[in-house]
Fold this sequence. Notes:
The structure holds two protein chains of two kinds. By secondary structure, chain A is an alpha/beta fold. Chain A has two domains: 26-235, no CATH class; 237-401, Nutrient germinant receptor protein C, domain 3 (GMP Synthetase, Chain A, domain 3, 2-Layer Sandwich), CATH 3.30.300.210. Chain A has helices at residues 2-18, 54-58, 78-84, 105-110, 113-121, 139-144, 153-167, 176-184, 201-204, 238-248, 310-339, 346-353, 355-361, 365-369, 393-396, and strands spanning 30-40, 45-52, 68-75, 92-94, 100-104, 130-134, 191-199, 217-228, 231-235, 253-259, 265-282, 285-301, 374-385. In chain A, strands 1, 2, 3, 4, 5, 6, 7, 8 and 9 form a nine-stranded mixed sheet that branches. In chain A, helix 10 packs across helix 11 (310-339) and helix 12 (346-353) packs across helix 13. Chain B has three domains: 14-127, no CATH class; 157-271, no CATH class; 283-453, no CATH class. Helices cover 44% and strands 12% of the residues of chain B. Chain B contains 15 helices and twelve strands. The A-B interface holds A 16-17, 19-21, 23-28, 30, 32, 34, 52, 54-59, 94, 96-97, 99, 124, 126, 152, 155 and B 315-317, 319-320, 324-325, 327-337, 340-341, 424-425, 427-430, 433.
Amino acid sequence: MTIRCMKLAILLLLASLLSGCWSRRELNELAIAAALGFDQAPRGYNISAQIVNPGEIAKASGSGRSPVITFTTPGDTVLQGLRRMTKESPRRIYGSHVRVLVLGEELARKGLGGVLDILARDVEMRTDFYIVIARGGKAMDILETFTTLEKIPANKLFTSLEMSDKNWAATGKVTLGELLDDITSKGKNPVLTGIEIKGDEALGKRKENMQRAKIPAELIYSDMAVLKSDKLVGWFNESESKGYNYLKGTVHSTIINIPWPDGSRIGVELLRTKRKIKVEWKDGKPVAHVKLTAEGEVGEVQSTADIRNPFVLREMREKTEADVRNRIRSAVRRAQTEFHSDVFGFGEALHRSSPRKWKEVEDRWHDELFPKLDLEVQVEVTIKRMGNTNQSILRQMGGHS
Amino acid sequence: MPAQPNPDSIHSQLDDSLSHMKQAFGFSTDLICRELILGRKPGCRMALLYIDGLAQVSDLLQSLLSLLTNTGFAEGAAKEDALQTVKRTLIPEGDVRELERYEETTDALTNGSAVLLLDGSAAALSIGVAQTEKRGVEEPSTQSVIRGPREGFTETLRVNTALVRRKVRNSRLRLESGRAGQVTRTDLAIMYIEGIADPAVVQEVRDRLNDIRIDGILESGYVEEMIQDSTRSPFPTVYNTERPDSVAAALLEGRVAIFVDGTPFVLLVPALFMQFFQAPEDYYQRADFATLLRLLRFLSFFIALLAPSLYIAVTTFHQELIPTSLLISLAGQREGVPFPAFVEALLMEITFEILREAGVRMPKTIGQSVSIVGTLVIGEAAVNAGLVSPAMVIIVSITAISNFVMPAFSMGISIRMIRLVMMGLAASFGLLGIIVGLLALLLHLCSLRSFGTSYMTPFAPLLMSNIKDTLLRIPWSGMLTRPKPAAGKGRNGGQPNRKKGGSSS
Lengths: 401, 505
C-alpha cells in the first residue's frame, strides 16, 4: 500500500516537474502587441507591431519614456515577419491582445487574402479586433503616430472607432470574424473603415505630439472602403458611408441636418433604426425592398419654426425620411455603377428568399446582376421627443425677425 | 479455595490494606491517610484516604469526627456491619459506593473521591467529595458571535455536560460516560437525544471510543484522530466546538456529542462538509441575511482555495483571458520582479504563514511589534524593493483574509494545505491543472464518510429536504422537518463505515 502510494506520488511529481512548465510565459517576458499593421513590400510584406511598454502605462506617473514602441520588419509571409521581429524586440510578440489591425491601402488594393490566413489560423489571435485601412498611406505610419488622451495609440483607434460607430454612423467597426465571413460569402462583399493622419505626419511620430493641446498630427477615421472580394476598389464618401450603415441596420444614433425653408437648419437625432431587406426576382432582374423604421428626436433647432405645430413636425419628419432615403440610394447607386460590388448583402437576401434562383445567378451576381438591381426604399421615422425645451431659443426671444 | 480467591480483594486487616494502598501509590506525598477510631470502648479502627488537592474532605471529616465520638456505636455490632452502619448513618455526602477491590479504590482516589477503609471489613467506601479547580464559564474565544449566547465550555466535563443539559431540558437527552487512555484514564462522555439520533451511529461512536488504545488523552484532538474515518484526508470529518449552543443544535439534528474531560472542545459526529460553513449566528440572525452570509462564505472558500493559483495560471499561461487594460497594468507591475509568479506567490504565502504562526505562539505583549514588522515587510518593503508585485500582495492578502471567514478553524487548515497543492498544479499546468485538481478534490470529498454518512450530504447523495439549511438558511417557519438521517444507503447498505485497525496504530 505504502509502496503503491509512493510510486503514485513519484509519478505525479515527475509529471508536474518534468513537464517543466513548458508553455509558461511570465508577464514580463511578453511584448504585448496592441496593434498590428501590414503593408505591401516589394517582396512580401512589411509587418509592423505596436508594442505596449507596460511599465510606462501602468504607473501613475510615467518616467517619460515612450508608452509604445513600433517595430517594423519585412517578411515573405506574415509569420516570418513577426518572428523576425524578435531580432529587434527583446520579448516575444504576443498577439492575443491586438485591438486593431491596420492595412496599408496598397496592400488592400492588391488583395487581403494572403495576410488574413495567419490571423484566422493562429491560436493566439482572437477574432474580435477591428480592421481598418490606412487611407492613402501606410499602416506603419499610422502605428507610429502618437496620440493623446489614450496613451496607447491602438487603444485610441479602438475606442474612437467604437464611439463614432455608436454616435455618428459614418464609420463601421468590422472585426476579423465579420471580414472573413464577408470575404468568403458570395452574396456580400466587405467594407472597411479608413483611417488617415491629419496634419504633420513627421511631427506625429515624435513624442511631442502628445504634449500639445492642439495636436499637430491626428489619427482620424474617414469614410469606408469598398472591397470587391478581398480587393479594395474604392471609397464611399461620408454621406454614402452613412447610407451604407442605414442599410446594414447598425445605426444606433446619428444626426441628420435638415434644411428648413427659412434658410436655417434643424438637427434631428436618429435613434434605434430597424431595417428589413427583402430581395425578389422579378422580370429577369432582382428587386430589393428595403424598409427602415427609426425613432427621431429633435436635437437642435436653429430656426424659429413653431415645432409644436403638428404640420411643422410632419414636415420635419418627411424631410428626415427623405434624407435617409437619398443617402441609401446614393450609396447603392455608387456601388452598382462604379464598384460593381454588392457590399449590402442583397445577394444574401436573395439567397434567403429564393435559394434556387441564387444558385443560378451567384457567379454573375456582382458584375452583371447587382448593377441591375431595382431598389425600393421605404423609410418611416417617428419623432418622439423634443428634448428639454420646446420652442427654440430664437423663437422664444420673440424673434419673428 | 476458601480464603482470598482474588489477590486484588481488599484485605480485612486495616494495616494490610493501608500498606497496600500506600505501596500502590508508591508513598506519594499527596496521598493522605487519616486514621480514626470508631466508637467508644473497643473502637473500630478506620482510615480515611484521599489525595490532597483532588478531594475536599474538611466537611466529611467534621461530620465523621463529631458523629464518631458522640454517638454510641453499638458495641455488640459485628464488625462486618460496621461498614454498613457507617455508610447508612454517618456520611453526609450523596455519592457513596462500596468497593471490594484495590483497583477500584485507586480509581476512586485518582478521581478525587475519599476512601474509607475499616478494620475487619474486606470492603471500602468511596465517598464522592471530588473538587476540581474550575475555570469559570467564559466567552468562547474561537467561535465568537455578535448575537447569541456568550457562554463557552470549560475544562471540566461535568460543567460542560450541565451547560448542554440546561439548554435541552428533556429526559431523552442521554449521557453515557466512560474512560480512555491507559495511563491518564481520562473521562469521556457521549451525549445524544434518544429518538432523534440514529442508534446505529450512537453504537458506532461507542464502539470506536471503546477501541481507543492510547496512553494518554489530553485534548479532544487525540480522540478526534483516533475515531475519524480517514486519517489521510485533509478534510475534517469530526466537528469541534467550544459552544454549548452549537452542541445543543447538533444534538437536535441527531448528532452525537463527545465530551472529553480537560478540554473545552467538544466533538460532534457525524460531521458533514456543509457543517463547516454554518456558523451559530446563522440561526440567530435574520434568515435572508444568514443566507447571504452563507453565500459569502462559499465565495471566500473558493477565494481562499484558488485565488493564488488562478492568478498564477492566468498570468503565466492564459494571458489572453485578462482584459487588455488589466493585463497591461499587471505587466507593468511585474516589470523588474525577478521571480516567476509561482515563486513570488509561494514567497508571499510562506511569509504570511510564518507571520500567522508567530502571531499564535508569541506572547501577546510583543504581538504588536511583530504585526508592524509583518505589515511593513510584506506590504511595503517587498514591493518597494521590487521583489514582489503589488498585485500579488493583494492576492495573498485577500486569500489570507478569506481564509478567516470560515467559521470552523479545522476547515481553514484544510484549505491552507490544499491551496499549496493547487498553486503547484497551476504553476505547471495552468488552468488545466486547477481543473484537474478541483475534480480530484470533488471525487475525494464525495468518497469521504463521517460515521457512515456521506461527507457531501445533502448534495451527494441528494437529499432535497436537507437543502433548506445548506446554501440557504430558510426561515424557521419553513424548517418543518428534521434533517433526514443521512446514513448513505449506498455502497455499504446503510452500515456505518467502520474504520479498520486505525485505533491500534
